[in-house]
User: What shape does this take?
Amino acid sequence: MSRIPIKIPSMLRGSVVCHRSRCGKANCRCATGALHERTVLSYSEDAKTHLVRLPTEHIDAVIAATRCYREKKARLAAEASANLAVYVAQLSDRSSER
Ligand SMILES: [Zn+2]
Assistant: This one.
């Protein structure tokens, strides 16, 4: 069975973090200090934080995709706030005319 290559979206919610952990095996190198490092995508859903391990070749693209989402979200929030300020000002102008 051939595996279909995974397409990385250009925009993703979540953040890429480096996760260090012990695997729990008593005779593993991590038991004495050298923790396992893995790069994961951390995202929250249903009020829970989920971690999914990222393949090395995906890391850069996924970081870019999460950054893209943060930037778009910030821009959208700024625009909505500006709209809100204008709208609320117009409503209060109108109510003071009475
Ligand atoms: Zn280990």
